[in-house]
Design brief:
about 375 residues, Carbamate kinase, 2 domains, 5-stranded mixed sheet, 14 helices, binds adenosine-5'-diphosphate, binds ligand VHF, kinase, nucleotide-binding, Glu_5kinase
Length: about 375
Amino acid sequence: MAVRGWKRIVLKVGSALIAPTANGCSTRYLLSIARFIAECRAAGTEVVLVSSGSVAAGRNAISFKQLPLPINVKQAMAAVGQSRMMASWSQLFDFDCAQILLTHDDLKDRRRYLNIDNTLKTLLANGVLPIVNENDTVATAELKVGDNDNLAAMVAIVADADALLICSDIDGLYTANPRTTPTATLLPQVSSITADIYAMAGGSHHAIGTGGMITKIQAADKATAAGIDTLIINGQKAATFDELLLNRPVGTVFLRQQERISAKKHWLRHNLKPSGSIILDTGAVQAVTLRGASLLPSGIHGTEGDFEKGDAVLLTRESGETIAQGITQYSAMELRKIQGAKSQEITARLGYCPSEVAVHRDDLVLF
Ligand SMILES: Nc1ncnc2c1ncn2[C@@H]1O[C@H](COP(=O)(O)OP(=O)(O)O)[C@@H](O)[C@H]1O
Ligand SMILES: N[C@@H](CCC(=O)OP(=O)(O)O)C(=O)O
């Protein structure tokens, strides 16, 4: 029977577990994780692995000591470390592993997103273990997701996973960073991710990890909103995996939210980086939020930023509060000319009218 009733899981493993001393890969913690993966598969639970560690694993191959490491040095380390990391995992399994390297650009492009979806499902159907990482060697800051916790949440959504398991070097989410606040206590369950939960999260305590607890809570926020239970667990302890297999409580469980929204709305909400904002007047805010209407140029009060047609934009109130995110049918320059205009006035102001709406209701998601 599937582990905990999960048909498919995404397991994210942090750098501190792959290359704990930043001196090449170590199997010290990977053995029990690999055994867990094999047991899941044997029980009928499909596994997608999101593995960090390429920079840490390749660190000793590139002679550069000054911190912070410049981007070109990190990219060179990642180029060495990625193949070391893949080799490290592959030696632990008697089935095939597949390398999938992604950037944020791949996840925000609908066509590439669907290709990733198809590839993952084909690999899983053929019993291959997909091992995903960010394509650090080619990705510049603007193209990156930036951390593998958020990447793993996006992969869990693409893969339609039942659960996201984030393996770190700590037992779960504490009320404060236990490395600096020894009185902090572990939260076994979080049913709603509020500002108070975000306030508990601190950064990483070492130079190998990216983001600390903050990125893990962001990931849990994304995944639970998509109906995916998310666990933060200690991947350094073999007992963690025994508890999981025995269906016992372990780590911090972030409960999935009841309401599910469509894959397209998830994609709109989580996979796009907004290039600017459209400011709505009061009537348009009501139409969009209460009546589920499209945003018309007549309800636009102004714009911020320099975006093009097809870009993601935030929809905000005049007070600056964000109410939605969507894809704009017009560039910022065009919208400045037609803001406040009735549909029949668009051609007169612009010389053409490719669309009567600025943001179509199917292309926007409310916050
Ligand atoms: N509230 C908190 N609860 C637990 N750990 C926290 C908290 N705030 C910050 N941390 C830090 O986050 C670290 C885990 O994140 P990180 O170092 O990025 O690991 P990984 O490489 O697994 O992503 C912990 O070891 C701890 O130092
Ligand atoms: N993609 C990077 C890891 C980025 C990252 O989020 O690291 P971590 O916080 O250890 O999960 C790498 O492979 O080095």
